[in-house]
Amino acid sequence: DRHIDWKDRRVLDLGCAGGFMAEALVNKGAQVTGIDPAAYAIEAAKSRAKLMGQKIKYDIGVGEALPYQDAAFDAVVCVDVLEHVSDLTQVAAEVARVLSPSGMFLYDTINRNPLSRLATIKIAEDILGLLPKGTHDPDLFIKPKELEIELTNAGLVAGPQTGLGPRGINRKGDLVFGPLPLKSVIYMGIATKPEDA
Fold it and tell me: Which H or E run includes 98?
């Protein structure tokens, strides 16, 4: 929200899963399309949107081959997805292609280092069971500088990055996530497509 006014923006939720981000963006006034390779997740997202009376377009597909026209979106959001793609270079190129000039890419992903491996796999998956075992392949984690290079090579202007992680607990007992000073485990950032692209 600090970087973009969502109202009336055409937004692609890349790797939307069950639609939690798409729903939040629609609530902020965006026109949202969600895409995910998991057909069961897309069906669940469609059912939730219908139940909640939200107008969200959902498609089955992958980030390496987005089925959309050039410059189709004002923003692309990618939450907890980049560390799962098979070809990061191709995904970055596709994001750049479907963004309109001055469009924004907003993302988060996992850094590749021993600490992130410990936190996301050993602790989150193996010990606490917050995620199913095998959710992550640490070889697919992405160092912040590597991602900046991929985005730049795709024709985007890499913007600021910051750490992301738990900052407290809400009244329901759920973790509340937000910006952190260190990018050691999870980090988030933005990139923009040049206006003259």
Answer: helix 88-98
